[in-house]
Amino acid sequence: MTIELFIQYLFAGITYGSIYAIVAIGFNIIYNTTGIINFAQGEFVMLGGMISISLLDFMPLACAIILAVAITMVIGAFIEIVFIRWLAAPSVLRMIIITIGISILIREAALYIWGEGVRSLPYFTGSAITAVGIFGARISPQVLWVVGACGLTVLALSFFFKATPVGREMRACAANRKAAILCGINTGNMVTFSFVLSAGIGALAGCMMSPITYTQYDSGTALAIKGFTVAILGGLGNVGGAVAAGLLLGVVEAFSVSVVPLAFQDVISIAILLIILFIRPNGLFASKEAAGLRAF
Amino acid sequence: MKNPGMKLWLVAILCLLAVPAVWAKDDIPVGAVLAVTGPASFLGGPEARSLEMLVDELNAKGGVDGAKIRLIIKDTGSSPEKAVSFAKQLIEENHVIALLGPSTSGETMALKKIAEESRTPLLSCASAEVIVDPLASYVFKVPQNDSFAAEMIFQEMNRQRIVRVALLSDNTGFGQAGKEQVEKIAPKYGIEIVDNEVYDKSATDLSAIIAKIKADPKVQAVINWSIVPAQAIVAKNMRQAGWDVPLFQSHGFANIKYAEAGGAASNGIIFPAGRLLIADLLPEGHPQKALLTKYVHDYEAKYKENASTFGGHGVDVFNILVAALKAVGPNKEKIPGAIEQLKNFPGTGGVYNFSPTDHNGLGIDAFEMMTVKDGKFVPYTR
Description:
CATH class of chain A: Mainly Alpha
Radius of gyration of chain A: 19 Å
Helix content of chain A: over 70%
Strand order of the largest sheet of chain B: 2-1-3-4-5
CATH architecture of chain A: Orthogonal Bundle
Number of strands of chain B: 14
Strand content of chain B: 15-25%
Strand order of the largest sheet of chain A: 1-2
Structural class of chain A: mainly alpha
Largest sheet of chain A: 2 strands, antiparallel
CATH architecture of the largest domain in chain B: 3-Layer(aba) Sandwich
Distance between the termini of chain B: 73 Å
CATH topology of the largest domain in chain B: Rossmann fold
CATH superfamily of the largest domain in chain B: Response regulator
Structural class of chain B: alpha/beta
Number of domains of chain A: 1
Largest interface: A-B, 45 and 35 residues
Order of helices and strands of chain A: HHHHEEHHHHHHHH
Helix content of chain B: 40-55%
Number of domains of chain B: 2
CATH topology of chain A: ABC transporter involved in vitamin B12 uptake, BtuC
Strand content of chain A: under 5%
Distance between the termini of chain A: 39 Å
Oligomer: heterodimer
């Protein structure tokens, strides 16, 4: 394998990996505060892309993205308030079924609003054929946008959880909900906030990746499956684990095409998921004790 | 008129005067089983809308010899199981005279036997060659054969002296049927497939696989056979990688949305497609010109969206059925014979010449080589 080809595979892998990681982080945030997997997470990504594409007709790109992220956050809050918050002591299974229902609802609404066609944002820098050379490999500048946005999101999140009062309250709520209530933290609000946050992160990812992958009413489903795989791989609830696992899975997928036919790419990721579930059910990076304590 | 009751009476009388024309003959019930929603909605949606438009137009003109067409559209959601149950319902309860559709090859194959057993003519909008080969006496299809598309591509490759190609295809029924045809026909044209890869229908980035086949210096061109958005991604990833070998696509690319999605990377893609896409550019006097320009204009004015070759399949099944109805009347068992008599019949997919052994009626000339120039489809010229 030449060095160019190696770099080319590596960057392809990092691109997929960053996107998977960001979807997985969305899963983790909601998992930590509620203990449920929000299967509508992929739909937040799709909504971010679709809304920004629609807004682009009326405003510059940056404004469209910011507004799309804000609107998706409002939708996230709305979903939590309407479907989750009023449930008194709901079982985990019930909440999961609710999120599956919500994902179908959003998808059908998107089909009704935007139709079945593919749409995309324009490339942020250059056009569909622009590429920058890195060690002889050619990379679309949009890949750098995706990787950069993913990195910044992770940094901003870790700052938010460590250094801001709301972030700390969310961590308290994740670590021990009862104790958090006793300390006067409004855990209901924290759950709403976790939906807002993961909707926003998903929507941002949706905007960043739209020029590369296109956005279609049902593009969230496939992403949710990959993001879920990564979340399990990294250990549910573990943000750092999600990033590492996302990049790992992306790179493995990209390099897999050099040895096995492309058709087996998804087989590899599902096989990894199954192996992890058998051997290390708490994820690659977590010990059993750590998995018992939820933390960001 | 002060008396409101009077008005009602007048309306009633007017209705009675108008009705006898309708009473003169029974409506002709026609069933359509189309994938209006679901993953194949980009086929079934335009097909259903085109049918509705044509039925309204025909009935406004008085229908077929005074009998109006009563079109019953059922949405299969792209599922063969639903197609089967709707087809049975239409045949047994609505006593339809013919079935139009389905949109996909899988659904059509599920209905082939039902059409034969119930002696109901089936005019499919799906392209697989197995629909009409082996021949079934009541089953017809209007889209062009995949094998013709493959031959068009290979003829062009022979002209450009391309002999070693990479083949990419998606894992839908369309992609896999095309892949089979390409593999089968390539040796006839002396073309060798050196790389052969299948990608998932929801693939979002193919830069890794493009890097792999680009690293093979033998590859002189790429053929991509697909009907999903990934075909625009193939084009982008190739051009981003700075790889400028010719990219050939199948007739599945014949959707302006895909050309737009590919942006600058779409320029120069070569693909075979029906002439609907270049209706305005056809020379005056071309047998399809009048039909195509009228359809494209009417459809775009009515539905505010681009007309596609897929909607055109809806037009063709309808016009062929109407021609048969005019010849033999609403007689289920005589319609297939009437269709087999149609010669030089212009449709959106090409000029149809049916026969008792050919239930597709199109030749390789139904396709035209096209390319993309500045986001628009134009005829391909060397």
